[in-house]
Amino acid sequence: MPRANRHYLPGYVWHITHRCNNRAFLLEAATDRNNWRRWLWETTSRYGLTVLNFVATCNHIHLLVYDRAGDSAVARSMQLVQGATGQAYNRRRGRRGAFWQDRHHAVAVDTNDYLWRCLIYIDLNMVRARIVSHPGKWCVGGYNEIQHPRSRYRIIDLEQLAELTECSTVQELQSAHRDQVEIALSRGRLNRDSIWTEAIAVGRQTFVDTVQSRLGLSRLQRIHDGDRGKWVLRDTEGRYVREESLINSS
């Protein structure tokens, strides 16, 4: 299995996925999912991580973030959440060994329509797995926080999400978000789409071209998948991009 990439360019939205080691259901207990969420909140306070959406499943997580500062907030946040969650689990269970697979995967996501599609894709994860019938029924996910913001320990930056989705207010964001989830559910748009977990960038051609140019790696290939002008950047060598080549690219 290829190693996942964790590359970052400042100023982009990133969809991050990370699986438990050997795809084991180490997040099956609500206690461990809630602990992951608690440490995710801690990163927003400690490092200023801008979170746009999230979900913790029984064996992997999805995290949508905006790296607006370019000050390593994403890398430091992932290190904290991964380490603290794994250590707490091992300590409580009397377990030793790796909790997570060695690398998480990061996909650069264009704004507006592409961001909406990724946002809803994350929301519907546990519906796709047939665990719940509606994302609002899964506690450790961003759907409820977008629709019913917490007064304390809120993780999602609703104002930033509204701006990136070109909504004039948070209320407009909530209405559009609710409508898009219901449309996806009514039309049965529940199939897994590997571009959101295996590509390097997804968006308009100009967006994908810019990401490829900034990464400076010739082996990356642009592919047009015929879905409303969507372009995908993939690695033509069948392996993901090395982190060392991509951090601090400009």
Q: Tags for this entry?
A:
disordered C terminus, alpha+beta, Alpha-Beta Plaits, 250 residues, 10 helices, seven-stranded mixed β-sheet, globular
Characterization of this structure:
The protein is 41% helix and 16% strand. It contains ten helices and seven strands. It has helices at 30-46, 73-93, 113-123, 125-128, 142-147, 158-164, 170-186, 195-198, 205-215, 243-246, and strands at 13-19, 50-56, 60-66, 105-109, 201-203, 220-224, 231-235. A seven-stranded mixed beta sheet has the order 2-3-1-4-5-7-6, sandwiched between helices. A hairpin with a 6-residue loop joins strand 6 (220-224) and strand 7. Helix 1 (30-46) packs antiparallel against helix 2 (73-93). The longest helix has 21 residues, at 73-93.
Topology record:
Blueprint: E1 13-19, H1 30-46, E2 50-56, E3 60-66, H2 73-93, E4 105-109, H3 113-123, H4 125-128, H5 142-147, H6 158-164, H7 170-186, H8 195-198, E5 201-203, H9 205-215, E6 220-224, E7 231-235, H10 243-246
Parallel strand pairs: 4-5
Antiparallel strand pairs: 1-3, 1-4, 2-3, 5-7, 6-7
Helix pairs in contact: 1-2
Topology order in helix (H) and strand (E) letters:
EHEEHEHHHHHHEHEEH
Overall geometry:
globular
Percent helix range: 40-55%
Total domain units: 1
As residue ranges, the low-confidence spans are 238-250
How much beta, percentage-wise? 15-25%
Tell me the Rg in angstroms: 17 Å
In the CATH hierarchy, what is the superfamily?
Answer: Transposase IS200-like
CATH architecture: 2-Layer Sandwich
Total strands: 7
Average pLDDT works out at: 88
Q: What is the CATH topology? A: Alpha-Beta Plaits
SS class: alpha+beta
Strand line-up of the largest beta sheet: 2-3-1-4-5-7-6
N-to-C terminal Cα separation, in Å? 29 Å
The CATH class is identified as: Alpha Beta
